[in-house]
Amino acid sequence: MSHNVSSSISSRSESDFPALIGHPKGEHLNGLDDKAEVSVIIPCYKQAHYLAEAIGSVLTQTYFNYEIIVIDDGSPDDTAAVAAQYPVRYIYQENQGLSGARNTGIDNSRGQYLVFLDADDRLTPNALQVGIDCFHLHPKCAFVSGHHRYIKGDGSLLNEYPPEPIDQNYYLALLKRNYIGMHATVMYQRHIFDIVGGFDTSLLSCEDYDLYLRIARQFSICRHHQITAEYRWHDANMTSNASRMLATASTVLQSQQPYISNNPTYLRAYRSGLKFCRYYFAYHLLTRIYRSLISGRLKNSWTGLTQLFKYVPVWLSTLSLELQTSARLLLFSLKIEAPLVVSAEDSLATSSEAETVTGLDDSEKITKTLTSYES
């Protein structure tokens, strides 16, 4: 079945991506196989009660050439029993966290393309076909991404928003915010992981955002506007830990500094990204506290207030980074060489060969929406 995929790609030329195009294992990048296999990797930890829905959403795909790999990340629940009821490849490992589970899936995958589906989320029936169609239009892209909607814990529709316009320089757009929002909307070329590596296991969250930035900085990517996944909102979402999410998102953004430190356009986008993170997670935390208070859920209210006390120092630390970047930009405007902005903890592993990248003008304002930074 063919789908009309409306999409746009980075403005970089093919000559900008020699590592991907010339990769010895990447023949299919220049000649796609209509029957290419897609590996759908489903890590599961304490989400067995949702796992059947996740697997079912793959089994009902309109594109039929796929494999399902369930990674049981040392889950203490009935993950193994649920997986045994379906035609999946089941792999058990001692708990390594989400990044480690995804990396195990990559290592054991057979497909030319990879999709990562969290055990509590779902794919829409046309998700794989839309991704394949988009790759047919843009075979040089390292990954393609789409749009998603939100569902409640019981699987019913929560809300749906149209995709927002973003900068056509996708690396610049990702510095401003994680516009992709939901990882399951992304389909990767398998061989890109041979080049950039897997997910960073040192990150407790935002590991997908880190990967997007690492890839988009070097290779062409593509965005279409079709809904391909459903994100489930419930109390166990990673995004409920606002202080951890902000700290990790800040760390991920800071990891790009060696590549953007001498480019004012990218520094402005980086500063916008820090600001977006600060207000985005604060908004969700305060909203959660307010709703708990008005509904009389005192225990949840107290949990939220405790998180708020933890959030404030991280908020201030991120604000400090933002102000340092503003000072650096001021020095640029005065044509004075400025030192590289680093965090007080100096915890980032910087590249030995920093590169300078160029991009479009920073004209997009930060928009506070509910479509970014889910993990």
Task: Tell me what the structure shows.
By secondary structure, the protein is α/β, with parallel strands linked by helices. 40% of the residues lie in helices and 15% in strands. The protein is built from 12 helices and 10 strands. Strands 1, 2, 3, 4, 5, 6, 7, 8, 9 and 10 form a 10-stranded mixed beta sheet that branches. Helix 6 packs across helix 11 (264-294), helix 9 (242-254) packs parallel to helix 12 (298-333) and helix 11 (264-294) packs antiparallel against helix 12. The longest helix is centred in the last third of the chain and has 36 residues, at 298-333. Residues 1-31 and 342-375 have low confidence and may be disordered.
* Fraction in beta strands: 5-15%
Coarse morphology: globular
Rounded mean pLDDT score: 82
End-to-end C-alpha gap: 30 Å
Count of distinct strands: 10
**Global Rg:** 20 Å
Structural class: alpha/beta
Key words describing this protein structure:
375 residues; alpha/beta; 10 strands; 40% helix; disordered N terminus
